[in-house]
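User: For documentation purposes, I need each entry recorded in a consistent format: the amino acid sequence on its own, followed directly by the corresponding C-alpha coordinates. There are two entries in this batch. Please keep commentary to a minimum and don't merge the entries.

Assistant: Recorded as requested. Entry 1:
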Amino acid sequence: MIRKTLGASLLAALFLATPAFAEKATVERPIEGSSLHVGRLDMAVYYVPVDGDLLEVTATFAPKGGGDPLRVVMGLADRDSVTFSMPGYQDSLYTFSRSGEEVTVSTETDMPLRADAQMR
Protein backbone atom coordinates (compact mmCIF):
# COMPACT_ATOMS: atom_id res chain seq x y z
CA MET A 1 0.00 0.00 0.00
CA ILE A 2 2.79 2.45 0.89
CA ARG A 3 4.65 1.61 -2.32
CA LYS A 4 1.50 2.24 -4.39
CA THR A 5 0.87 5.61 -2.70
CA LEU A 6 4.51 6.64 -3.08
CA GLY A 7 4.46 5.67 -6.78
CA ALA A 8 1.25 7.65 -7.38
CA SER A 9 2.70 10.68 -5.55
CA LEU A 10 5.89 10.57 -7.60
CA LEU A 11 3.96 10.28 -10.84
CA ALA A 12 1.73 13.22 -9.89
CA ALA A 13 4.80 15.32 -9.01
CA LEU A 14 6.35 14.62 -12.41
CA PHE A 15 3.21 15.77 -14.24
CA LEU A 16 2.78 18.89 -12.09
CA ALA A 17 6.42 20.00 -12.22
CA THR A 18 7.14 22.74 -14.74
CA PRO A 19 10.50 22.20 -16.39
CA ALA A 20 12.89 25.15 -16.30
CA PHE A 21 15.65 25.60 -18.85
CA ALA A 22 18.62 27.89 -18.31
CA GLU A 23 21.49 29.37 -20.28
CA LYS A 24 24.36 31.67 -19.26
CA ALA A 25 26.89 33.83 -21.11
CA THR A 26 29.71 36.10 -19.93
CA VAL A 27 31.02 39.19 -21.72
CA GLU A 28 34.59 39.86 -20.59
CA ARG A 29 35.65 42.88 -22.68
CA PRO A 30 34.06 46.04 -24.15
CA ILE A 31 32.33 45.54 -27.51
CA GLU A 32 32.74 41.76 -27.22
CA GLY A 33 29.37 40.19 -27.85
CA SER A 34 27.58 37.12 -26.59
CA SER A 35 24.14 35.60 -27.06
CA LEU A 36 21.48 33.40 -25.46
CA HIS A 37 18.94 31.28 -27.33
CA VAL A 38 16.67 29.60 -24.74
CA GLY A 39 12.95 30.41 -24.79
CA ARG A 40 10.93 32.40 -27.33
CA LEU A 41 13.51 35.19 -27.67
CA ASP A 42 17.07 35.15 -29.00
CA MET A 43 19.23 37.73 -27.21
CA ALA A 44 22.53 39.41 -28.16
CA VAL A 45 24.44 41.49 -25.58
CA TYR A 46 27.53 43.71 -25.40
CA TYR A 47 28.81 46.57 -23.22
CA VAL A 48 30.88 49.76 -23.46
CA PRO A 49 32.43 51.72 -20.56
CA VAL A 50 30.79 55.10 -19.79
CA ASP A 51 30.90 57.78 -17.08
CA GLY A 52 33.67 56.54 -14.81
CA ASP A 53 32.73 53.23 -13.23
CA LEU A 54 29.59 52.43 -15.25
CA LEU A 55 29.33 49.89 -18.04
CA GLU A 56 26.53 50.58 -20.53
CA VAL A 57 25.04 47.18 -21.37
CA THR A 58 22.93 46.81 -24.51
CA ALA A 59 20.78 43.72 -25.02
CA THR A 60 18.69 43.14 -28.14
CA PHE A 61 15.91 40.54 -28.03
CA ALA A 62 14.57 39.05 -31.28
CA PRO A 63 11.34 37.03 -31.24
CA LYS A 64 11.91 33.58 -32.78
CA GLY A 65 8.50 33.71 -34.44
CA GLY A 66 9.33 36.97 -36.19
CA GLY A 67 8.41 40.51 -35.27
CA ASP A 68 10.16 43.66 -34.15
CA PRO A 69 13.25 43.33 -31.94
CA LEU A 70 13.20 44.70 -28.40
CA ARG A 71 16.19 46.58 -26.94
CA VAL A 72 17.25 47.28 -23.37
CA VAL A 73 20.11 49.63 -22.44
CA MET A 74 21.23 49.82 -18.81
CA GLY A 75 24.14 51.15 -16.76
CA LEU A 76 25.73 48.64 -14.38
CA ALA A 77 28.17 49.55 -11.62
CA ASP A 78 30.46 46.92 -10.11
CA ARG A 79 28.46 44.24 -8.22
CA ASP A 80 25.11 45.44 -9.67
CA SER A 81 22.53 42.83 -10.63
CA VAL A 82 19.07 43.12 -12.17
CA THR A 83 16.44 40.52 -13.10
CA PHE A 84 13.42 41.12 -15.35
CA SER A 85 11.22 39.65 -18.05
CA MET A 86 10.36 41.27 -21.36
CA PRO A 87 6.81 42.52 -22.03
CA GLY A 88 4.80 39.75 -23.67
CA TYR A 89 7.43 37.13 -22.74
CA GLN A 90 6.92 36.68 -19.00
CA ASP A 91 7.80 32.97 -19.25
CA SER A 92 11.53 33.91 -19.33
CA LEU A 93 13.55 35.73 -16.67
CA TYR A 94 16.80 37.47 -17.63
CA THR A 95 19.49 38.32 -15.06
CA PHE A 96 22.32 40.75 -15.80
CA SER A 97 25.11 41.00 -13.22
CA ARG A 98 28.47 42.72 -13.20
CA SER A 99 31.69 41.76 -11.43
CA GLY A 100 34.65 43.98 -12.30
CA GLU A 101 34.88 44.14 -16.09
CA GLU A 102 32.71 41.05 -16.64
CA VAL A 103 28.98 41.11 -17.33
CA THR A 104 27.18 37.80 -16.93
CA VAL A 105 23.75 37.28 -18.45
CA SER A 106 21.58 34.30 -17.66
CA THR A 107 18.08 33.28 -18.55
CA GLU A 108 15.67 30.83 -17.04
CA THR A 109 12.54 29.87 -18.92
CA ASP A 110 9.60 27.53 -18.58
CA MET A 111 9.54 27.07 -22.36
CA PRO A 112 11.08 23.87 -23.72
CA LEU A 113 14.19 24.03 -25.86
CA ARG A 114 13.85 23.65 -29.62
CA ALA A 115 14.81 20.18 -30.86
CA ASP A 116 17.88 21.48 -32.70
CA ALA A 117 19.07 23.43 -29.63
CA GLN A 118 18.84 20.33 -27.43
CA MET A 119 21.31 18.47 -29.63
CA ARG A 120 24.14 21.06 -29.42
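Entry 2:
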Amino acid sequence: MAMETFKVQVNSTDHPHEYQATVRDFRVKLAPDSTTAAHPHEAILQALGACEAIVMASFNKQQNFTYRDFYYTLAGTRSGERPGMDHIGVAVHLNTDESPQKCREFMDFTENTCPVMDNLTHTVPVKRTGVAVIA
Protein backbone atom coordinates (compact mmCIF):
# COMPACT_ATOMS: atom_id res chain seq x y z
CA MET A 1 0.00 0.00 0.00
CA ALA A 2 1.31 3.45 -0.90
CA MET A 3 2.16 5.92 1.84
CA GLU A 4 -0.59 8.51 2.34
CA THR A 5 -0.30 11.81 4.17
CA PHE A 6 -3.30 13.60 5.65
CA LYS A 7 -3.10 17.28 6.57
CA VAL A 8 -5.23 19.60 8.66
CA GLN A 9 -4.62 23.23 9.55
CA VAL A 10 -5.91 24.79 12.78
CA ASN A 11 -6.11 28.56 13.16
CA SER A 12 -7.05 30.89 15.98
CA THR A 13 -10.08 33.13 15.37
CA ASP A 14 -11.21 36.55 16.53
CA HIS A 15 -13.08 34.82 19.38
CA PRO A 16 -11.03 33.85 22.45
CA HIS A 17 -10.56 30.08 22.82
CA GLU A 18 -12.30 29.35 19.50
CA TYR A 19 -10.40 27.71 16.67
CA GLN A 20 -11.07 26.67 13.11
CA ALA A 21 -9.79 23.39 11.75
CA THR A 22 -9.56 23.20 7.97
CA VAL A 23 -9.07 20.16 5.80
CA ARG A 24 -9.34 20.75 2.06
CA ASP A 25 -12.57 22.82 1.66
CA PHE A 26 -14.10 21.73 4.98
CA ARG A 27 -14.10 23.79 8.15
CA VAL A 28 -14.93 22.82 11.72
CA LYS A 29 -15.19 25.24 14.62
CA LEU A 30 -13.70 23.97 17.88
CA ALA A 31 -13.86 25.51 21.34
CA PRO A 32 -13.63 24.05 24.83
CA ASP A 33 -16.65 25.87 26.30
CA SER A 34 -19.02 27.00 23.58
CA THR A 35 -22.56 26.40 22.43
CA THR A 36 -21.64 27.28 18.82
CA ALA A 37 -18.59 25.06 18.34
CA ALA A 38 -17.63 21.46 19.01
CA HIS A 39 -15.47 20.65 22.03
CA PRO A 40 -12.27 18.85 20.92
CA HIS A 41 -13.40 15.78 22.87
CA GLU A 42 -16.67 15.81 20.93
CA ALA A 43 -14.69 16.02 17.69
CA ILE A 44 -12.87 12.81 18.63
CA LEU A 45 -16.21 11.09 19.24
CA GLN A 46 -17.53 12.40 15.92
CA ALA A 47 -14.47 11.09 14.08
CA LEU A 48 -14.79 7.67 15.70
CA GLY A 49 -18.50 7.31 14.96
CA ALA A 50 -18.14 8.53 11.39
CA CYS A 51 -15.17 6.24 10.77
CA GLU A 52 -16.99 3.16 12.01
CA ALA A 53 -20.04 4.11 9.92
CA ILE A 54 -17.86 4.43 6.82
CA VAL A 55 -16.27 1.04 7.50
CA MET A 56 -19.73 -0.52 7.88
CA ALA A 57 -20.96 0.97 4.60
CA SER A 58 -17.75 0.05 2.79
CA PHE A 59 -17.47 -3.57 3.89
CA ASN A 60 -20.98 -4.85 4.68
CA LYS A 61 -21.41 -6.59 1.30
CA GLN A 62 -17.93 -8.13 1.45
CA GLN A 63 -18.73 -9.40 4.96
CA ASN A 64 -22.16 -10.68 3.81
CA PHE A 65 -23.94 -8.44 6.31
CA THR A 66 -27.15 -6.61 5.48
CA TYR A 67 -28.88 -3.76 7.29
CA ARG A 68 -31.57 -1.23 6.47
CA ASP A 69 -30.00 1.56 8.49
CA PHE A 70 -28.14 2.20 11.73
CA TYR A 71 -27.02 4.90 14.10
CA TYR A 72 -24.30 5.28 16.69
CA THR A 73 -24.34 6.85 20.11
CA LEU A 74 -20.96 7.66 21.60
CA ALA A 75 -20.18 9.06 25.02
CA GLY A 76 -16.84 10.01 26.47
CA THR A 77 -16.18 10.66 30.14
CA ARG A 78 -13.29 12.36 31.83
CA SER A 79 -12.48 12.83 35.46
CA GLY A 80 -10.15 15.77 35.03
CA GLU A 81 -7.23 13.74 36.36
CA ARG A 82 -5.76 13.72 32.84
CA PRO A 83 -6.32 15.98 29.83
CA GLY A 84 -7.98 13.28 27.71
CA MET A 85 -11.03 11.16 28.22
CA ASP A 86 -10.93 8.27 30.68
CA HIS A 87 -13.50 6.16 28.87
CA ILE A 88 -15.36 6.09 25.55
CA GLY A 89 -18.55 4.10 25.18
CA VAL A 90 -19.83 3.19 21.71
CA ALA A 91 -23.29 1.75 21.05
CA VAL A 92 -24.48 0.84 17.57
CA HIS A 93 -28.18 0.46 16.85
CA LEU A 94 -28.80 -1.73 13.80
CA ASN A 95 -32.03 -2.05 11.84
CA THR A 96 -31.35 -5.54 10.46
CA ASP A 97 -32.66 -9.07 10.20
CA GLU A 98 -29.20 -10.51 11.02
CA SER A 99 -28.74 -12.59 14.17
CA PRO A 100 -27.31 -10.96 17.31
CA GLN A 101 -24.19 -13.14 16.92
CA LYS A 102 -23.64 -12.03 13.32
CA CYS A 103 -24.15 -8.40 14.40
CA ARG A 104 -21.47 -8.78 17.11
CA GLU A 105 -19.09 -10.39 14.61
CA PHE A 106 -19.65 -7.62 12.07
CA MET A 107 -19.12 -4.95 14.71
CA ASP A 108 -15.90 -6.68 15.83
CA PHE A 109 -14.76 -6.56 12.20
CA THR A 110 -15.77 -2.89 11.98
CA GLU A 111 -13.85 -1.93 15.13
CA ASN A 112 -10.76 -3.86 13.99
CA THR A 113 -10.87 -2.18 10.55
CA CYS A 114 -11.60 1.41 11.66
CA PRO A 115 -8.47 3.61 11.45
CA VAL A 116 -9.73 6.03 14.11
CA MET A 117 -10.31 3.15 16.54
CA ASP A 118 -6.82 1.90 15.73
CA ASN A 119 -5.33 5.31 16.54
CA LEU A 120 -7.27 5.58 19.79
CA THR A 121 -6.42 2.10 21.05
CA HIS A 122 -2.79 1.79 19.92
CA THR A 123 -0.05 4.25 20.69
CA VAL A 124 0.68 6.38 17.64
CA PRO A 125 3.87 8.44 17.80
CA VAL A 126 3.14 12.16 17.66
CA LYS A 127 6.15 14.36 17.00
CA ARG A 128 6.29 18.13 16.74
CA THR A 129 7.87 18.85 13.36
CA GLY A 130 8.51 22.53 13.87
CA VAL A 131 7.83 25.75 15.71
CA ALA A 132 7.83 28.96 13.67
CA VAL A 133 7.73 32.50 15.00
CA ILE A 134 5.90 34.83 12.63
CA ALA A 135 6.87 38.45 13.12
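Summary note for entry 2:
The chain has three helices and five strands.
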